[in-house]
Design a protein that fits this description.
This protein has helices at 16-27, 59-67, 71-74, 96-124, 146-165, 184-187, 191-199, 209-220, and strands at residues 7-11, 31-36, 49-53, 78-81, 128-133, 171-178, 231-234. With 241 residues, the chain is α/β, with parallel strands linked by helices. It has a seven-stranded parallel beta sheet with strand order 3-2-1-4-5-6-7, with helices on both faces.
Length: 241
Amino acid sequence: MSLVGKTAVVTGGLGGIGAACVEGLAEHGATVVACDVHTDGPAYPDRTVTYAQLDVRDPGAWQRVFAEEPIASSGVDILVNAAGIGGAGALHEVTLEEWNDVIAVNETGVMLGTQRVLESAARHGRGASIVNISSIWGTTATAGFAAYHASKGSVALITRNTAVTYAQAGVRANAVHPGLIDTPMSRGNSEEFNEAIIARTPLARRGTPAEVAACVLFLAGDGASFVTGASLYVDGGFSAL
């Protein structure tokens, strides 16, 4: 698969899944803008990768990133919305501040990024591929995690809405639903919780960020040109039970 000539934006680009997506997109020839909330990013050895600070909750920050090179002149062909935060509280105990923060990052951030890509597609006269990172918790439930469940469920449905609404503009939108993946976020779970999820996973292990990124790359590329509105589960069979 070649992504030469494509410009990609990855949010959460310093996180486990996001970083793997940045690496994979660049490896296949894309020019990649890795975005994260941190002020400074790494010095990427691959010159086709640049870093941009982006708070996905901030519309002005999105505007700034899209006004800079290489996006300003080339437009965006691929957007991977991988930025996300957890939220472990049950509904009766979650505070409004905690709820709003999770929704702002996991849900509103996807909306703002999608809006910028739609503007780019109209301006540059070509379509784009949007890949949104949802979760197994976007379509199934576990105890607690109320805000996280709500946000990831929204990601799954806004992906389908985008796919249906903007298909004629050449914009494809698909969602990836990871299971338990070996990332800093999952390492923050209790050992008991992670062991329980692994015990319910037919492949009986955690996934790796690279395994998620491989599926993101497929959906992002031209090989998936007839795939839109889909939900791809990368969960070791967890959702099949």
